[in-house]
Amino acid sequence: MRGLTRSEATDTLHRAGFYNISFSEGCSTNGEHEKVNGQTPEAGTPTTFDAPVGMHIHILNCVSIPDVVGMPMGSAVDYLGKLGWTPVAGQGCAVGDNSVVAAMTPASGSYARPGSRIQLDPKCR
Fold this sequence. Notes:
Layout: H1 6-15, E1 21-27, E2 36-40, E3 53-59, E4 63-64, H2 73-82, E5 86-89, E6 101-105, E7 111-112, E8 117-122
Parallel strand pairs: 1-3, 5-8
Antiparallel strand pairs: 2-3, 4-7, 6-8
């Protein structure tokens, strides 16, 4: 499946009788954009038709996620949104200060496709 697009790989696997297919994506600075670069199990490995088949896709043109830890939650959401990310302010502090970003997922400095979701978790005391 290496080198095929997501739809080409899916069509090929369906024609072969495999329907339990999942895809994961990873940012890369090289390789073919939006093409399969890995699979599990490897091609030629005996398996059953209902066994899971995983495909990994290279995504190019990813950018580094800025650090907003320590910023007020509202400012962090606005800042990331203006840069084209999809920030999601976390919940979870029954007692404490929800106004400061304590952690983010993916972490700052990670690479992701613009528009990706960034989870912002509040600081609790």
